[in-house]
Amino acid sequence: MDFHQNLNFIIEMLGTIAFAMSGSFAAMQKKFDPFGVVIIAFITSVGGGTVRDLLLNIHIFWMHDLTTCSIIFTTSIFSMIFKSLEKNFQVTLFIFDSFGLGLFTIIGLQKGLNADLHPIICVVLGTITGCFGGILRDVLLHKVPLIFRKEIYATACIIGGTSFLLLSKYTDLSNAVTKILTILLIVIIRTLAVKYHWEMPKFYIDKENSKLK
Amino acid sequence: MDFHQNLNFIIEMLGTIAFAMSGSFAAMQKKFDPFGVVIIAFITSVGGGTVRDLLLNIHIFWMHDLTTCSIIFTTSIFSMIFKSLEKNFQVTLFIFDSFGLGLFTIIGLQKGLNADLHPIICVVLGTITGCFGGILRDVLLHKVPLIFRKEIYATACIIGGTSFLLLSKYTDLSNAVTKILTILLIVIIRTLAVKYHWEMPKFYIDKENSKLK
Amino acid sequence: MDFHQNLNFIIEMLGTIAFAMSGSFAAMQKKFDPFGVVIIAFITSVGGGTVRDLLLNIHIFWMHDLTTCSIIFTTSIFSMIFKSLEKNFQVTLFIFDSFGLGLFTIIGLQKGLNADLHPIICVVLGTITGCFGGILRDVLLHKVPLIFRKEIYATACIIGGTSFLLLSKYTDLSNAVTKILTILLIVIIRTLAVKYHWEMPKFYIDKENSKLK
After folding, report:
1. Transmembrane segments in this chain: where (chains A, B, C) (predicted)?
2. How far is A154 from chain C (nearest CA, A)?
3. Which residue of C has its CA nearest to B148?
4. Taking CB atoms and an 8 Å cutoff, what residues of chain C touch B132?
């Protein structure tokens, strides 16, 4: 395994851990039983990649090796045991989740490029890989998926994905450097968005008056 | 591209626009940010066809050309800009949505027939293509999918699909005429149902007393 | 068709009927129209197996024969007509649902083994087959999927699946006996769990104070 494969492997495992933790904590807040917590962690973590692999009609990435399943299971158990630490974990958790988003977006984009799809479709695939796990988690926990309206979540994916394509095409940076830069960009956008309560302008809202149901 | 392919292409594009508009307006009512609106428009518009293509194990229709994505993106931007016109649009929107339902049902049915499936399975596929985008939209917007209990939505698909099969088998009408007639039938059923508040008889309801949760 | 195939066929059909009934009753409680009831029955019944077949990238089991569709349709009509009997049915229904869970778990597990997957992935597949129909039903009916926190639902699948693998590997029991034993085990766990209000210990809850939203 050379450096580049190692990098991809590390990216994937860190993203898996990050999303498994976010799924576990969300499920524990809803008082799910331990196996429920493991299942939500699993769906949050592999959901985006599974949808991507189904759309690409390739082997589902977690079905032919045990690494992903073992990591999710371990992370999930670990999260339950250290639940009491959550308050101190809050910031760590947020950082992990943002890295997960960045990491998974890049993996999805790369798989789209490997399948010779149009760059715009690749950005769509990257966004699906990054966001779908969280969407499934929120749907199963019976919440409005927050990613659609808060904290520039999907927006960070799309900006990151586009930057990756532009950097790859118009600069001489190596693939590894481009990947790391893009992941950092997504993490920074997310972090600044949460810190300063950035939201996308909703120019259509002002006309709205109590139409919400 | 001959007349028949042109007809199919026009049917698909009109349906895509109709569902992208219905997704955009629904997401704006829930105050999603602009990228959230685009994503909901996308899922509403391609959801049914994606599930159909996954079930048929064929190429996902929107992944290998940009037309669908561009149309959805444009429609979605257009909807956000002209949001203020919504009241005047309400009727137009309803008509578009009904046409979308009719158009997508026929496309799904046709793809099932092309795959040599049993006519009843084809009606099921047509219903999935027509209804699933709207179901996913409502699940993501955290609403009970209305299509199950109001306005004879799924019922219109099933009646339309069955009529298409009967007309194809027992009359000499050309495929194009049959398609257009079926789409009109679905639109008319939907329109009359909404205008006169038709509902399917729920013969099992009268025994019910406050069992709803 | 020999004895073993007959057994598998009977297992699959009983599971289909059980889940179609549970879907129909749940949809009627939410006052869906008759076609809505049929659609929910359909999704509850084939949902788990469809996700499994998509993940395995094999033919979707219900698309190439009419048996499954006919059985679901008939069960659903039958449920609507005999709705008034529901109170007397409650216990029967619960037993059917538990059998459905056991039956579908074993089918999923067997399909995973046939595809030469690792035993742990097979247990995951069995759990998905058994639980996903019910999850989809609850999501579409706009309820928190109860299976995650009540009545040891997913837990029963996982214990059952593991027992099946251990019995197959370390005993000389025939495949048919092992299957029947496992199904009975899942049903018994579910029944005892409901009767005595068993829940998995939630060792992480006591630290929780009003964090629920």
Report:
1. 6-28, 35-55, 61-82, 89-111, 117-140, 152-170, 176-193
2. 23
3. C36
4. none
Of B29, B35, B60, the CB nearest to A211: B29
B25, B33, B56, B136: best mutation site toward chain A, by most A Cβ within 10 Å?
B33
- Convert C120-150 to b/e letters by CB count within 10 Å (16 or more is b): bbbbbbbbbbbbbbbbbbbbbbeebbebbbb
Percent of chain B with pLDDT over 90: 26
Find, among C8, C6, C5, C15, the residue nearest to C131 by Cα. C15
> How near does any CA of chain A get to the CA of C135, in Å?
8
Query: What pLDDT is attached to residue C206?
Result: 47
B55 with C34: Cβ contact below 8 A: no
Question: Chains meeting C at 3+ CB pairs closer than 8 A?
Answer: A, B
For the ranges A59-73, B191-205, C186-200, the lowest mean pLDDT is seen at B191-205
Test mutation, C35, C51, C71, C82, chain B, max B CBs within 10 A: C35
Q: Which residues does chain B have within 8 Å of residue C23's beta carbon, measured at their own beta carbons?
A: none
Number of domains forming the structure of chain B: 1
Residue C203 has pLDDT above 80, yes or no: no
Domain hosting residue B95, numbered range? 3-195
Work out the mean pLDDT of chain A and round it to a whole number.
82
ipTM summary value: 0.80
Q: Cβ of B140 and A143 within 8 Å?
A: no
Distance CA B133, CA B127 (A): 11
Q: Is residue B209 part of a domain?
A: no
pTM of the model: 0.85
Distance CA A81, CA A62 (A): 25
Residue C55 lies in a domain: yes
d(CA A195, CA A189): 10
Q: Is A203 a domain residue?
A: no
Arithmetic mean of pLDDT, B160-184: 89
pLDDT, tens digit, for every residue of A9-53?
Answer: 888 888 899 889 888 888 888 878 788 888 899 999 999 999 999
* Chains B & C: contacts with CB separation below 8 Å: 80
Among the listed residues A157, A69, A147, A148, the one whose alpha carbon sits nearest the alpha carbon of residue A108? A157
Confidence of residue C37 (pLDDT cuts 50, 70, 90): confident
In chain C, residues with a C-beta closer than 8 Å to the C-beta of A63 are: 55-56, 117, 121
Residue B88 pLDDT grade (very low, low, confident, very high; cuts 50, 70, 90): low
Domain membership flag for residue A213: no
